[in-house]
Amino acid sequence: MKKYNIAIVGIRGAVGMEMLKILEQRDFPVNELRPMSGNPDQCPVYQFQGKEVKAVKLSHDAFEGIDIGLFSPGAALSKEFAPSAVKAGAVVIDNTSQFRMDPEVPLVVPEVNPEDIQKHKGIIANPNCSTIQMVVALKPLHDFARIKRVVVSTYQAVSGAGTPAMEELINQEKGDMTVNKFQHQIFRNLIPHIDVPQGNLYTKEEIKMVTETKKIMGDDNIQVTATCVRVPVIRAHSESINIETEKKISREKAIELLKDAPGIQIIDDITKNEYPMPLMSENKDDTFVGRIREDDTIENGLNLWVVSDNLRKGAALNAVQIAEELIKEH
User: Fold this and answer.
1) Average pLDDT, the chain
2) Where residue 54 sits, what CATH number does that domain have?
3) Is 330 a catalytic residue?
4) Which of these is catalytic: 120, 142, 228, 237?
5) How far apart are CA 27 and CA 29, in angstroms?
6) Is the pLDDT of residue 330 over 70?
7) 22-57 pLDDT tens trace
8) Bridge partners for 56 per DSSP
9) Of these residues, 120, 129, 142, 228, which one is catalytic?
10) What is the pLDDT of residue 329?
11) In the annotation, is 43 catalytic?
């Protein structure tokens, strides 16, 4: 089997570390692993496949010989260094927001639009974490009944804001109520404010869900409205999703469609207290769907509760799955 030289750019972040773990767990055919960070001296050595791998400093000349670059260093650094990786011959799979809505860059969830990978010109974008799990659940329903409108409320874990955000919640649980990462104390609280407010008073996170869904699903006619909320959970985002479709989907039909779809696991028996929750979703690869029920207030409506580990399927796993599809195509 052919093996590939892989760079992880932004290795010290929560997503970078998860990428490292997933490459090993999924036995990705790695020839050379090259962890990269702006300051490799802070964490100079990583363990991979039973060996120590030395980190290198992120620079424009660091990509020589790299086949695939898994990027999660922040949008500004992706903007600066991704073109250098492509110039050196690598394909970049970027987990930041930098390239997602670039018309020249495919935005990919392998369970939804793997065919778009073939359109890449050196860069493939990984969608926003909250968008990924939603479209995984929506795709089989859209294919059957064509979704007209989506109303989604998210309950997003602090890990979506990075390692410092996780540390802030843990410190507050221990009694240190210092607020640095969030607008308010997150312990014992909910904050209906993720990312920067825009002119229409939606936040950037909410607008990402609107625009990215249309691009990934390949349908500009899908109407999406979102409210994104930060919750005091370490890992795994939850979403309450209401959809309106062109034709009726019964609860039974929805279960039939979803249970056969890739990457989905149904947990749905409220009489036995069985439904997806963040704790059960941590470190799991699937997107979990439950509380499936028809919306009686409209003719063709359906409600879903969707939970997924945002560091895995919402970020690192999706990127590695794109890489797996990429090497399958080549």
Assistant:
1) 96
2) 3.40.50.720
3) no
4) 237
5) 6
6) no
7) 999 999 999 999 999 988 887 789 999 999 999 999
8) 36
9) 129
10) 65
11) no
